[in-house]
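Supplementary Note 3. Input sequence used for the single-chain structure prediction.
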Amino acid sequence: MKKLLSEFFKGIIKENPTFVLALGLCPTLAVSVSVINGIGMGVAATFVLLGSNMIIALIKNFIPARIRIPCYIVVIATFVTIAELAMKAYSPILDRALGIYVPLIVVNCIVLGRAEAYACKNSLVNSFMDGLGMGVGFTLALILISGIREFLGAGTILGHTVVKGFEPVFVMGMPSGALLLIGLLLGFFNLAKRRN
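The predicted structure, written as discrete structure tokens, is reproduced below.
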């Protein structure tokens, strides 16, 4: 049980996809304008990570080495399609807000990297915990970044005004603001990691 918990928590802290491994930065920059968008992208990526990690852990011994990457992409694309269709059916506003970045989860280096580096070498349960931890870590990073950007860029959190009369910092609503914020947060987490 302790090993399973360490597999889960490594994705949140030690190997956080955004702040430690610096993976998945393209969708992070693009969708982190609001907390709702961050949560939506995080949940979709977590679903894909969980599903693809589990299926790849189950079929790894049946896939020839020469075609493993295309097979992984087919598995990942299947879960992305399920996530995208569910989002279109149950949350069309969020689907429009996330746009092309949900289908692009297929080639997201977090998902493909976990399939290649972890799921194809470990058991089903370990792969499930790894996918869950990486997904939660990515989601928490998106919530942090989008929360800061939404508050500073619009003066709101989850669409609700937090401080009346707040003068927004418009650069935080732009891609350059996201890049600046992610750089500062990466620096902060690297500094904190070195002190520990």
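The beta strands are 156-157, 160-161. Residues 2-195 form one domain.
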